[in-house]
Amino acid sequence: MDSHHHQDIEEAKSSSVDDEAFLVASNVAMSLAVLAVLKAAIELKLFDIIARDPKMMMTPSQIASHVPLSQYPNLPRKLDRMLRLLANHSLLTCSLKSDDDEHGEVERIYGLSPAGRYFVHRDDGDTLANYVRMVNSRVIIDVCLNYKDAILDEGDNLFEKIHGKPMYHYLETDAELSKSFHTSMADLSYMEMKKILEGYEGFEGISTLVDVGGGNGMCLSMILSKYPSIKAINFDVPRVIQNAPSYPGIEHVGGDAIMLKYICHNWEDETCIQLLKNCYEVLPEKGKVIVIDLITAEAPDSSNGAKYISSMDNFMFFCPGGTLKEFESLCQSAGFSQFHLATTAFSVYGVMEFHK
After folding, report:
1. For the CA atoms of 153, 159, 160, 166, what is the dihedral angle to 10 degrees?
2. Is 161 domain-assigned?
3. What is the pLDDT of residue 257?
4. Which of UniProt's keywords are assigned here (predicted)?
5. Residue 312 falls within a domain, yes or no?
6. Which residue among 163, 265, 340, 355 is the active-site one?
7. 51 occurs within a structural domain
């Protein structure tokens, strides 16, 4: 191989690397477009339309015919632009078909992908559609636009700085956002608890389970469906409890903790340790606290799991996530004798046991 040929190869490699770097950077810079299109697609119920017959794929014109309130000649073309972007991000599948006429024009047909099914509206909670709409609300976006202040200011609560009160207090004044928030949290809890129950057997043998911050009690209901002998107590603030539905076997009362599901990430370490100490004091010998939370990796990587955890970690604005070692440190600081990572759900949610 002569030196000129070798140089050409190296220059081609360098150009390819630079091209990829530019595209990675540009896609991140344009990520708002993905979120905007996704939100619009959910509001237009495009995923619902495509999901009506999972075996069929639909053209933009066919999809447009099911969009209510707005029918005009250019609608299929506009929808096609959205659908292509969603397919590029693996939220839809796409195939090409040629018309039978003499022009032989190519038309795209779309179907629902495994990831896209999470944006179909469902009554059972197995959906992210409500979550997307909640995080794209004006109230949340206003906080996101001021993220720099969360870094530069010593204060922790960016939401309070922007809106005048902490988020959970703000929800008491905004009925629409409160409903959206609690619905989306219930949806997330349903999907996560469904996955947890597939691989976690630590509820076996528990006589009384108290869920702190248990919301409407749905998670406990799912646990009881598999472990009906458990006496379940749901503990939350009165405004949540008073709107909670009645589930067989669940008592909606205030009490002490056994299960802390996505509680620790709401507080700094000192508060978490005090909460865990309170749990420790009321637990019987050999009792345990089940802590369910996102586990942050020690080193960043480009996997979907790592991206999701880091996104959620930053989206909390002021409440950092924790590594496995940090959760173990909380366990020890609160006086527990044993820490155990029992299982994970979706490879990101850790189910940890703190044994007395």
Report:
1. -130
2. yes
3. 47
4. Methyltransferase, S-adenosyl-L-methionine, Transferase
5. no
6. 265
7. yes
Provide the whole-model pTM: 0.81
pLDDT at residue number 255: 36
Q: How far apart are CA 133 and CA 122, in angstroms?
A: 14
Residues β-bridged to residue 106: 98
Whole-number Å distance between alpha carbons of 25 and 20: 9
Q: What does residue 114 show for φ and ψ, rounded to 5 degrees?
A: -55, -40
Q: Tell how strand 92-98 and strand 106-112 pair up.
A: antiparallel
CA distance 157 to 324: 25
Give the residues of the chain that fall short of pLDDT 50.
Answer: 241, 252-257
pLDDT at 241: 46
- For residue 55, give its domain range: 23-119
The answer to whether position 188 is within a domain reads yes
Residues, the chain: 356
Do residues 95 and 132 both lie within one domain?
no
Q: Give catalytic status of residue 5 as yes or no.
A: no
pLDDT at 12: 59
194 shares its domain with 149 = yes
Q: Bridge-partner residues for 92, per DSSP?
A: 112
